[in-house]
Amino acid sequence: MKMTNTKKELLAIADSCVKCGICAPHCPTYTHTQNENESPRGRIALIQAWAGGQLNMTDNLLEHIDSCLLCRACEKACPAVVPYAKLIDDFRAEMHGEQSTPLSVRLVKTFAENKRVQRWAKSGLKFYQQNNLQKTVRFLRLPNLLGLGELERLVPNYQDTQPLQNYYPATNEIKGDVGLFVGCMGELFDFETVNAAITVLTHVGFNVYLPETQTCCGAIALHEGDSETAQTLAKQNQTAFANENLQAIITIASGCGGTLKDYAPKVVDISHFLSQFELDLKPLTTNIRVHSPCTLKNVLKTDKSVLKLLKQIPDANISSLPETTQCCGAAGSYSLRHDKMAQTLLNELLETSLEKPADYLVSSNIGCALHIAAGLRERGENITVVHPIVLLAKQLAN
After folding, report:
1. I need a labelling partner for 202 at 20 to 30 A (CA). Which of 113, 128, 224, 268 fits?
2. Burial of 392 (0-12, 13-18, 19+ CB in 10 A)
């Protein structure tokens, strides 16, 4: 049988792996299952065997590939620099439609890609939470009956928002122009961070542009194997941020940044961008624990900048989670597909987080923040989960 170009490309990537196994201890799913098929090396071998014609496509094979978090810790550890994420994404694109997609994932994907749906969701969330409907629905366990339990638990309290402008001028001496990528989730679920980003960037001296035509970064579509939609979204964002005068395209969610950097120039996480400036901040006597999302550590590789930036806050007691801390289990839509593994990883992270006193737990990715906040609520812990930029905005000296 003639080998397709796609299979040839998959084989070429898979063949670059020497199967040394250095990646295995860094893989969350292998750590918790000790199953070689659940390791990066094992998954590469499975794809290699399928692409080479030695292994038939089965539900079991698909499940092993689907259970990958794409945290990319393996890539960071790999001495051969195997482009593991591309291999997984390309394989999923080839298999798109072979697996059923849970209702919760379909809803999230529709929300991410459609601005009209986002506007409807804003009105719906306000009605859902402010008319005791949420309490009734949870009491009757309707989300679980509909297969939406994992999605519903992530929903934060509704925040009143103001319509975003396309342009915010610097409030101090002008240093330049930047674009701000809000993403598909920011305006509804994390407007506090969007507002804080605008406040701090303009305070530092940057004119901030928010192109109205910007859209979802495409990460959800990409990891679901819908490469066509991912490419369409990428082209729309490239056009939206085509202004050559922009010194940087600032992201406030590292998951978005990790995807954007593959197709848009000048992408930089906001904490890394701001860490080059000295800020005049008011003291804050509090305990802050710093969570570094996988995309910040393993893709953007600027996680150290968050600590550097937060240490500018006088009197704050700041400590990072240990370097050995693995993925929290959010991983885009992963927690909706693989709730048991996601919960296992979340519990492990929360145990580590609670080893030291904390008033705040900061995270630079909206998906991680929602996942962790839900876990803390369920434990009855009174710890506020926020983006680091929110704390900075609150402490800016007048």
Report:
1. 113
2. buried
